[in-house]
Structures are given as structure tokens and as C-alpha cells.
Specification:
The chain has 365 residues and is mostly helical. It is built from 16 helices and 7 strands. α10 links the parallel β4 and β5.
Length: 365
């Protein structure tokens, strides 16, 4: 308890929903955790997860800063996946999966269908913020790129150039967003093998007849390139299977956005942001995230049905939609709740889950 008291003194005003405080006071909240399926084909043992999280409040003092609710089983599992991203990447690479970098706005289906592990360097930086409590990667990256550089680009750039994350190849689709994305890509290509898919700017106007065949050609090239690295010749069935799996995840995220509109607020802003932002790479493991997210949404539904309003959020909060890239400083989400607000959506990732991808017929049509 002396260690606990010392850490608490280091943190100014720990939240009522502080992950570390709740786990430290009542380790029994970990008993509800289940084993998670994994893309590797091997389950992530519940004992492994419970043991790791039972020590996380000591190993990661930053967990005292954040309004993360460990009484939601899926949130505890999500925290585990966030904190273990480095070790899990190593294990998946050993299992034969190439690690492929992408931009946040690029859908993940084609990467996983090619038997590769998609990783968004920005979400990786998000994981580092949870474990360290600092926004170091975005700050460092902006020092190299520009003071006003997109935080996603800046954090991803620093994570790769500083060697914090090792990619086998980098294959983003570059489109008309983030003015520094092209420069950032070229700079990273000096360190890691890089390819890029080009996205046409005008895909629905007068040039749409040319835009769609061009985009299809870029996707086919990407699948062929990634397939050569992974050893899988990607076919239509591989794509349909991945679409079906990720459609389940997309559906859950849409359900979560709907639940945040209810009078009874089931979870706080940071829990919500963590749950929806993982769609940029599913923390390298879509099956594991499906299990965790299913639990989060089930608990949120139950709370709404029973009228259980989450702690740390006022009744009838001012509901906010984030546009553009979300804030890098995770502590801001705590402040939003404390000031009477609530984040209920983020425009910058909505394109990844606002609709399902059809699984019938030719996936290229």
C-alpha cells in the first residue's frame, strides 16, 4: 500500500474511474476476464491476461491518470491488448505474419485478407500514450516534420524512424488528406521498404468512370504485393471471409455510437474513444478485438436498459462530435467529462465502419 500511496501522490486528482485505482483496491474485478481468440489460431489465455493486468497498476503508473473502467470486462481486455502490442507483434511475426504499416484512414480488410498484420503507427502511438501517459511520439514527430503536422502523421513518423516499431513493409493508400502524408511516407521509405496505393480525388464526379477502374487496379496491385510477402495468393474467398469478420466489428461500433446517444450514458468519453479508434488496425488482431468489443457493447446495452449511468459523466451531458484528427493528449477526454461534456463520435474514423462491405458476389465489383 505504501507504493500505491506514493504513486497516488504523484498524480493530481486521480479519477473515480481510474483503471489503476480500481484494480489496486479490488483485484477481484479481473476474475471476469475471459480467454481471447487470436488471429494466430492460438487463444490468449485468461490467466495470462489476468496476471498481466493484476500487475499493470504497478508497472504502468499512467493508468492512474485515465478514466478507463475496468469493471467492464471488455475494457480490461482492450487495455491488455493496448499494453501488449509490442510483444504480440513479435509473436505474430514469428508465426509467419508480415507486419505492414498503413495510414489511419485506410481500411484494414485487404491487409488481413493477404495474411498480413495491419498496423497503424498512429494507433501504436496511442498505445504508448496509455502505457507512458505522455504524448512524446507526436511531439517528436512534429519536431521533425512541422509544428502543425497532423498528429497521426507525426506520431507514426516518430514511431517508425526511432525504431520503436519494426515494419516489414509500409503500404498506405495516399489520398487528399494531411498535406504532409506524402513527405512523411517518403521519409519513412528511407528506413523501411515502402509502397503506396494512390486514391483518386474525384471518385464520384465527372471522372468517376476512370476513377473506379484505377482504384480497383491499385487494390489488386496491393493484394498481389502483400500476398507475395506473406506467401498467400489472395482470392475472392479470402476477401469475403475478412469482410464478414470485420463487418461484425463495424456493426458493433455503430451500435456503440447509438448507445452514446441514449439518455443513460453507459461509458465515458475515453472508454468510447478507445473502443472506436481501434478500428484503424484492430490492435493487430481482429478476432481478439471482436471478443473484447462484443463484451463492451453488451455491457453498455445492459447499463442503458437498467438505467445505470456511468460514473464521472454528468446527467444530460453536452454531446460532442470530433471532426478532423482526434486529440493526441488522452487526458483531454477526462476533462471533457469533468466539464459536463461527452464525446459521442469521431469523424476521422467514421469512414471505416459507417457501413458494412457486401460479402455476396465478386468482392472486386
Amino acid at each position: 500500500m505504501k507504493l500505491l500511496e506514493k504513486i497516488i501522490k504523484m498524480i493530481k486528482g486521480p479519477s473515480r474511474l481510474s483503471f489503476a485505482l480500481i484494480v489496486a483496491k479490488d483485484p477481484m474485478v479481473m476474475l471476469d476476464i475471459k480467454s481471447l481468440p487470436s488471429i494466430s489460431g492460438r487463444k490468449i489465455s485468461k490467466w495470462r491476461i489476468r496476471f498481466f493486468l493484476s500487475l499493470a497498476w504497478i508497472r504502468y503508473p499512467s493508468l492512474y491518470q485515465y478514466n478507463i473502467d475496468p469493471t467492464i470486462r471488455g475494457m480490461s481486455e482492450l487495455v491488455y491488448l493496448l499494453l501488449t502490442v509490442d510483444s504480440r507483434i513479435i509473436e505474430l511475426r514469428k508465426a509467419g505474419f508480415p507486419i505492414v504499416g498503413k495510414w489511419p484512414a485506410n481500411p484494414t480488410d485487404i491487409y488481413f485478407a493477404a495474411h498480413c498484420i495491419a498496423i497503424d503507427p498512429f494507433l501504436y502511438a496511442f498505445c504508448k500514450m496509455i502505457s507512458s501517459g505522455e504524448n512524446v511520439l507526436a511531439t517528436t514527430g512534429r519536431g521533425e516534420l512541422a509544428v502543425d503536422a497532423c498528429p497521426a502523421q507525426a506520431a507514426g513518423y516518430a514511431a517508425v524512424t526511432q525504431g520503436q516499431i519494426t515494419l516489414d513493409t509500409f503500404y498506405p493508400f495516399i489520398g487528399p488528406w494531411c498535406y504532409d502524408s506524402q513527405y512523411c511516407f517518403e521519409a519513412m521509405r528511407n528506413i523501411v521498404e515502402g509502397h503506396f496505393g494512390e486514391q483518386p480525388i474525384d471518385i464520384s464526379g465527372k471522372n468517376s468512370e476512370e476513377a473506379f477502374p484505377f482504384m480497383l487496379s491499385e487494390i489488386r496491385t496491393c493484394l498481389t504485393t502483400l500476398g507475395k510477402r506473406s506467401g498467400r495468393e489472395v482470392n475472392a474467398e479470402h476477401l469475403r471471409e475478412e469482410f464478414a469478420l470485420e463487418n461484425k466489428l463495424r456493426s458493433l461500433l455503430r451500435d456503440m455510437m447509438g448507445l452514446m446517444q441514449q439518455e443513460v450514458v453507459p461509458i465515458g468519453s475515453l472508454d468510447f474513444i478507445m473502443a472506436i479508434f481501434i478500428c484503424t488496425d484492430w490492435l493487430c488482431d481482429p478476432p481478439a478485438m471482436l471478443a473484447a468489443l462484443t463484451s463492451i457493447v453488451a455491457t453498455a446495452r445492459k447499463r442503458v436498459a437498467k438505467g445505470i449511468h456511468t460514473k464521472g459523466v454528468v446527467k444530460n451531458p453536452v454531446r460532442l462530435l470530433i471532426t478532423g484528427i482526434a486529440w493526441g493528449d488522452l487526458g483531454l477526454y477526462n476533462v471533457i467529462d469533468e466539464l459536463g461534456g461527452l464525446i459521442v463520435g469521431s469523424e476521422c474514423v467514421l469512414n471505416l465502419f459507417y457501413a458494412d462491405i457486401p460479402t455476396e458476389g465478386d468482392p472486386f465489383e
